[in-house]
């Protein structure tokens, strides 16, 4: 650890040292310094690429998984498909992904660094683990799906139940998943179903004690509190609106979001975000 801290400080101070050296020693030293800066600067502040980085867990899997409660861990089903995290030895290459799909694996979301969430059976898992470019394979535990803000950020502070947003893998059987949610006491609403854009999510109103059960539904990939829209002021010209509701606008629809929709799907985030920004006259609405 001490060596890593020393190395990081040394690299961070290197541009300053090279600049002083080039001023003292002339243009030739300046040219060498410029080349070194191009090579070194991308390393400054860079995280350890061996780390798996979730919102609330960061760990090197070869040094052990995080201390997760047993009630939020899952064991592989030997008779069917399971959801795994597959970490590669470096930045993912297309032929690596083709080799995984050729073995029968289904590839989903990216996890920093150099990892994907993958669905496959146990036989395929054993074959994937033997590939030379695969660093580690482990279970996608229910604990990784739970936003740490659950229970802290409340849609209605006076409501004893939680209002949450569930995000699913795009090939989910949403009717089957909905039945499982209702079976544990959840009331669902506001389905947004756009699997071709990898967006499938819905809201659920549920008892706090049942939240952990939601995380054990395999097709759910992320559970987060539902934010509340609030009117902030009457003077700015910017308006932000979340794209949700699960319906496609009819031809000729002049609703605000249809005018200029910006879609963002960041592979480093656990949840796909869609929003539109417009210039109006006297309103600002923000989404928390």
Give a written overview of the molecule.
The chain has seven helices and 15 strands. With 288 residues, it is an alpha+beta fold. Helix 1 packs antiparallel against helix 2 (27-40). The model is unreliable at 1-12, 241-249 and 251-288 (pLDDT under 50).
Largest sheet data: 4 strands, antiparallel
Assess the beta-strand content as a share of residues. Answer: 25-35%
- Coarse morphology: globular
Give the helix tally.
Answer: 7
Tally the beta strands. 15
Spatial arrangement of strands, main beta sheet: 4-5-3-6
Helicity level: 25-40%
String of helices and strands: HHEEEHEEHEEHEEHEEEHEEE
Poorly predicted spans: 1-12, 241-249, 251-288
Look at the structure and give the mean pLDDT: 78
Using the CA coordinates, give the radius of gyration: 24 Å
Structural class: alpha+beta
Report the span from N to C terminus.
37 Å
Brief overview, please?
With 288 residues, the protein is α+β, with helices and mostly antiparallel strands. It has 7 helices and 15 strands.
Task: Name a few traits of the molecule.
288 residues; 26% helix; four-stranded antiparallel beta sheet; alpha+beta; single chain; 7 helices; disordered N terminus
Layout of SSEs?
Layout: H1 2-25, H2 27-40, E1 52-53, E2 58-59, E3 82-88, H3 94-102, E4 106-111, E5 115-120, H4 122-129, E6 134-139, E7 162-168, H5 174-183, E8 187-194, E9 199-206, H6 211-215, E10 220-225, E11 229-233, E12 238-242, H7 256-259, E13 262-264, E14 273-279, E15 284-287
Antiparallel strand pairs: 1-2, 3-5, 3-6, 4-5, 7-9, 7-10, 8-9, 11-15, 12-14, 13-14
Helix pairs in contact: 1-2
